[in-house]
Structure formats: C-alpha cells, structure tokens
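Researcher: We plan to redesign the surface later, but first we want a full-length starting point. Tokens attached.
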C-alpha cells in the first residue's frame, strides 16, 4: 500500500505546473522529447500489461490442471500452439522495437531541423559553481557579461555556446531542451527556443564537485520588446554612486579584495572573470547561483561568510569593520 501511495504521488507530481517538471514543455525541443517519452511510456505500459496478463493466465491454467491432478499438457497440438505463441511474441517484439527506433529517428530529424537558422548567440561558461553568461554581438560595444540568469526573447532561436575551464559540467533546461555536456577544452553548443513567456529552472546535471547541487541557472523568457529593453539596460555601465555612503562603498570595493575577482563595468576595475560580473547585480533574482534570494540580508551574509551559505565556494571570508561593510552593501544594492 505504501508503494502504491508513493507511485501515485510521483505520477501526480509529473502532472503539476512546477517549472522544473520536464513534461511541462515551453519550447519545441522539449515538446518533441515529451512526445517521444509518451510514445515509449504507452507502448511499454501496454507490453507490460499484456505480459502480466499472459503470465496470470498461464499460472491460473497450470494451477487448475494441478488441482484436478492432471499432468502438464504435452501433445503435438500443444507444442504447435506453444510455437505459434513464441513466434507471435518474437514478431511483435521486432515490430515494436522497429517502431520505437523509427520514432526516435523521426524525433532526431525534427530536433536537427530546429537547430538551424539561429538569430542570436550567447556564450555560457560553466564554472565551479556558477554560470558566466556572455551576450555576443557583431558590435563589440554591445557585448556584455552577466551571471546565473539567462534572458531570451520569446520565439527567438538562440545558440548557446558551452564552455568550461575547470571540470566537466552539463547544462539541462528541462522545460526547454535536453542535456548537453560541457567539457574542458571542447566547445559544445545547444540551440533553444522558448515559445511562451515565463521563468524556468536549469541545472548542472553532471556531478562537478562539492556544490554541484547548488549550481542553478534561471532562464527568463520575455516578450521581444521587454527583452530589448533588458538588453539596453544590461549594456549600460553601472550607475554612479548616488550618496556619500555609496561612494565610500565603491572605494571599499575597488581597494579591497572584491575587485581582484569581480568586475563592475564603469567603476574603473580591470576585467576579471574569475567571479561573477556585478555590474547589474540587483537586477537578478538570486545570488550564489540560486542558493539564496537576492535580498539585502542574504547579500550581506554572503559577503561576510560565503561558506556559511554555500560551503566549499572559492569566495573567501570578508571581515570588515561595520562602517565599510554597510557602505559596501549600500553600493552593491545600487547596482540595478
């Protein structure tokens, strides 16, 4: 009974509108994959049901003969029937397997066709344990880098160029497309298209170290006009500090250890990609690759003791006096 209850809960969970559920597809790649899943599910469920029914029939007939004291039926006619059943089973198995291979081939052709004629390229570098996202453009002045949040326009076919400089990772956007491995020294690509506005969760699906479970990627699909507005904002340098506390915080950032790893465009820092770009930090919904919401309290805790939130990260502990800390936090809060 307990097993039945668990099975029912799993089935109902697969029917929910949770953005992490694969079967709630938001693009054609996931839709074709979902169609193939249902084909395999239905066929295998029918085969399983028929096999169990035949097994039950055989056991029932055998038990009935045994109760009557009759020996197993061993006649030329029964041998012919047995041979016919075996031949039918083999033929049906070959037919079913051929059909499933054909369905897989047809879906592969559809997926290959969807990968043509992309209109935008985005470079994603997987790192332990976050995502560096670089929006490419023919004009270098329009290129920019962000982290952990991937924005795309609804209906646009986007090519994701996938790289890694440390260990093997794998990008999986369950509602959008299949998994794609990211291997150091080798550039892979993944084409996606999102057909409706919304927010979906992605993950690294290849174990990559201590904080693999907290290496989340948020995908946000926006209507084209909203996406263009977001692009225009992201291409701008960081806003100038508005008050004395923010100016002090900027100096704390520039003269402290933060600027050795992070970059804020327009602040005078050199370019560093060792840690996430913070130019528009507060435009993101989370910090630490989805480990915590992007609130002032969580951000302050992350600055002081990152290992308390995400043990094993490469970011060191930052011990500062109260005034410098509050100023730094105020400056980072202004980066929208």
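Model: Full-length starting sequence:
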């Amino acid at each position: 009974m307990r097993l039945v209850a668990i099975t029912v809960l799993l089935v109902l969970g697969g029917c929910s509108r949770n953005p992490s559920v694969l079967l709630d597809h938001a693009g054609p790649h996931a839709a074709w994959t979902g169609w193939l899943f249902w084909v395999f599910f239905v066929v295998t469920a029918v085969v399983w049901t028929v096999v169990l029914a035949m097994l039950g029939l055989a056991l029932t007939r055998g038990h009935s003969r045994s109760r009557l004291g009759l020996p197993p039926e061993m006649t030329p006619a029964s041998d012919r029937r047995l041979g016919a059943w075996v031949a039918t089973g083999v033929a049906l198995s070959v037919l079913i397997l051929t059909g499933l291979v054909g369905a897989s081939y047809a879906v592969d052709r559809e997926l290959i066709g969807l990968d043509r004629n992309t209109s935008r390229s985005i470079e994603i570098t997987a790192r332990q344990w976050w995502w560096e996202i670089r929006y490419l453009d023919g004009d270098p002045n329009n290129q920019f880098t962000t982290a952990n949040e991937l924005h795309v326009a609804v209906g646009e076919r986007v090519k994701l160029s996938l790289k890694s400089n440390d260990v093997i990772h794998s990008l999986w956007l369950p509602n959008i497309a299949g998994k794609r491995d990211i291997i150091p020294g080798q550039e892979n690509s993944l084409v996606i298209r999102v057909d409706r506005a919304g927010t979906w969760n992605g993950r690294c699906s290849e174990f990559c170290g201590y904080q693999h479970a907290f290496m989340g990627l948020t995908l946000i699909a926006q209507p084209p006009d909203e996406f263009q507005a977001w692009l225009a904002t992201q291409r701008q340098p960081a806003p100038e500090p508005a008050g004395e506390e923010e100016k002090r915080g900027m100096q704390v950032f520039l003269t402290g250890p933060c600027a050795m790893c992070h970059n804020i465009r327009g602040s005078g820092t050199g370019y560093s990609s060792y840690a996430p770009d913070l130019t528009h930090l507060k435009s993101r919904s989370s910090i630490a690759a989805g480990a915590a919401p992007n609130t002032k309290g969580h951000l302050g805790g992350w600055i002081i003791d990152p290992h308390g939130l995400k043990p094993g990260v490469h970011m060191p502990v930052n011990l500062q006096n109260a005034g410098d800390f509050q100023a730094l936090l105020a400056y980072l809060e202004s980066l929208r």
